[in-house]
Amino acid sequence: MKIIKAKDYEDMSRKAANIISAQVIIKPNAVLGLATGSTPIGVYEQLIKWYQKGDLDFAEVCTINLDEYRGLKHSDNQSYWYFMQEHFWRHININPENVHVPDGSNLDPVKACKEYDEIIKHSGGIDLQLLGIGDDGHIGFNEPGEAFELETHCVDLTYTTIKANARFFAREEDVPKQAYTMGIKSIMQAKKILMVANGAGKADIVRRAFYGPVTPEVPASILQMHPDFTLVLDEAAAAAL
Ligand code: GLP
Predict the structure, then answer these.
(1) Does 239 fall in a domain?
(2) 14 within domain boundaries
(3) What's the CATH number where 134 sits?
(4) Were 234 and a residue from 7, 22, 58, 198 both cysteine, which residue would form a disulfide, CB within 3.0 to 4.6 Å?
(5) Whole-number Å distance between alpha carbons of 201 and 213
(6) How many domains does the chain have?
(7) Residue of the CA atom closest to atom 3 of ligand 1
(8) pLDDT (tens digit, 9 = 90+) per residue, 47-99?
(9) Phi and psi at residue 6, in whole multiples of 5°?
(10) CA 125 / ligand 1 centre spacing (Å)
């Protein structure tokens, strides 16, 4: 596990974007595992800037997102597909056929998850997986207590997660109660994993995840076992280390 401390959010975003851009330069047809949430927005902004300067080319890149709310269509402005479109894809030259998010509009969880596992397999495997961390240590939507061995599956979101994500919805009642997420097994199969964390609110969970025992109660703790895991965090998120 490599820990890179950044001064602030901007510095964290630039350092993480540097790692992703190195991946894309070394392997122009890289498979990037992408994440939503407020934390990676600055990373996407930085990558867009470098693309606009002509330093990055996404024409052959393939992306596979971690998760999606069950019941939301691509066109729904609360869907993770929409989030990715707004914050990243529509600003770069990625081929629309090469971007993937679990199909939230497919209400059949078995089919939707199986299809997504097929997409991951056919991609040849994720070269670099970007992650944020939830307040309770979740990654993707793998909530505390879930088995580490799972591939894509349907989860019941915990109240903590629903509450944390309510800021993106008009009302807390509007937050979907279920999601499709890549499992820990799929995440751990990525060749490289890069996590970003910022702000004092993440300090305690970062300490528990990376300086505590590996346990399904803190899903992100499994990343301690990954052979190529890098954590980039700002001073506030590193305060309890
Ligand atoms: C959601 C996403 C996670 C993300 C988490 C933290 O639950 N499914 O992938 O890491 O939010 O979000 P934020 O970065 O806004 O703290």
Answers:
(1) no
(2) yes
(3) 3.40.50.1360
(4) 198
(5) 20
(6) 1
(7) 140
(8) 999 999 999 999 999 999 999 999 999 999 999 999 999 999 999 999 999 99
(9) -110, 160
(10) 23
Task: Report which residue type is found at 153.
Answer: H
* CB 38 within 8 Å of CB 221: no
124: Cα separation from own chain's centroid: 19
In terms of C-beta density within 10 A (0-12 exposed, 13-18 middle, 19 or more buried), how is residue 211 classed?
exposed
Does the C-beta of 155 come closer than 6 Å to ligand 1? no
DSSP 135-195: TTS-BTTB-TT--TT--SEEEEPPHHHHHHHGGGSSSGGGS-SEEEE--HHHHHTSSEEEE
Residue 92 lies in a domain: yes
Token look-up 């702000």 returns 199
Using the mean position of ligand 1's atoms as its centre, give its distance from the Cα of residue 227 in Å.
Answer: 23
Domain region containing 109: 2-234
- CA 232 from centre of chain: 14
Is pTM, for the whole model, over 0.85?
Answer: yes
